[in-house]
Write a structure and sequence with these properties.
The protein has 74 residues and is mainly alpha-helical. The protein has four helices and no strands.
Amino acid sequence: MIALFFIYSGLKYTPEKHRQTKEESIADLRTKNSFEYKWLAKFLQKAPWWVGRIFFIAIGVVIMLLAAFGKRIF
C-alpha cells in the first residue's frame, strides 16, 4: 500500500508541484540550521522537476521488490 502511494505521488508530481516545493525549501532554509536538511534543500532547488518524479517512482518500486522478496515470490 505504501509502495502504491509513492508510485502515485511520482505520477502526480508536476512542474507546478516542484515550484511550490522549491519555494517552501527556500523559506525553510532561512529558519533551519540543520546541516542534514540544508544539503537536501539546496539539492531540491537545483534539481529539475522530473528528478522528483523519478525519485518517488523508484522508492515505490524498491518497496514493492522488498515486499516481494519478503514473501519469497522471486
